[in-house]
Amino acid sequence: MEESTLKATASAPAKIILCGEHAVVFYEPAIVMAIDKQAYVTVEARSDQAIYIKSRNLGVSGRYERGRFKLGVGGGAAKSKLDPIRIAVEKTLELAEKKMGLNVLVDSDIPVAAGLGSSAAVAVATIAATGKLLETSLSKEKICSIAYEAEKTVHEQPSGIDNYISTYGGITIFRRGEKFTPLEARANVILVIGNTKVSRSTGLLVRHVSELKEAYPKVINPIIKAIGRISVSAANALQDGELKRLGELMNVNHGLLYALGVSSEELDQLVYAARRAGALGAKLTGAGGGGCMIALVTPDKLEKVRRAIRRAGGIAMLAKKNDRGVQVWEEK
Length: 332
Ligand code: MEV
What we know:
Blueprint: E1 7-19, E2 30-45, E3 51-55, E4 60-65, E5 68-73, H1 78-96, E6 102-108, H2 118-133, H3 140-154, H4 161-168, E7 171-174, E8 190-195, H5 202-215, H6 217-239, H7 243-259, H8 265-276, E9 281-285, E10 292-297, H9 302-311, E11 315-319, E12 327-331
Helix pairs in contact: 1-2, 1-3, 2-3, 2-4, 3-4, 5-6, 6-7, 8-9
The structure holds (R)-mevalonate.
(R)-mevalonate binds at residues 17, 21-22, 24-25, 117, 155, 158-159, 161-162, 202, 206, 286-287.
């Protein structure tokens, strides 16, 4: 007789946006790449009906039972941090038409609230692990669409780019509401991520751009369109293996994001430090307002750019492409 699955674990990658953030919310294209930082989620069955969630990296835990939340550790903010994970679990249970209690353990090496898609990666891994435990076969398409539902509870009007790339991996030109098409990049994209260590809220930054757009449509709409055009030109540059062109386009993109009011002093400092150290291009990545920037480098400038980012006060990390997207396995 086959043994039943006792535990399932899934991993899902973080991402960087090479160009097109914010404009992508308004249906312009963006280029996004999954990177080698991952969220890991392990799910196991409980003997009761509660959903217990513990996030090691956030330092919070709690139990949901009969519509009530009971705090484990992490204080007043714990519930709002754990709610999106609970929603991902509940939506997967609903889809599988099952009712049962689960323990959910989240561990992640993705910096949180830093523009690298941590919440989406956790949602994607949670759904995949829960689906596996329930022995429900979930396609990547399904995982991605449930994760989008969870993302909606974290950010107000997400474009879906984070859950998309975390599910599928690789590098792509993403258009909101369209099917995934991987991008054939001829060039070896070497990126240094600089983390300002300033946390921020994607929802608030997206709202800020929306409000600016409402207030000055004739000024802001062309900026958003221009960002979309940058993404198209950058996709061509990638396909032609033209890294210098890609770097220039990234610089222009940062200028336009600055114009939209989503850069910050800390981000600008890291961007300028990286450029001075010889990066081909540097820009903020993700929602901005803090969080991370990226610098496109050639191998000979890698160390110099890393050091420059550190000296300017940031945490520097090398980002490699992740081609696999979400992965799931059983643990008996
Ligand atoms: C999120 O990583 C980037 C934004 O474009 C928001 C979104 O696309 O949902 C700022």
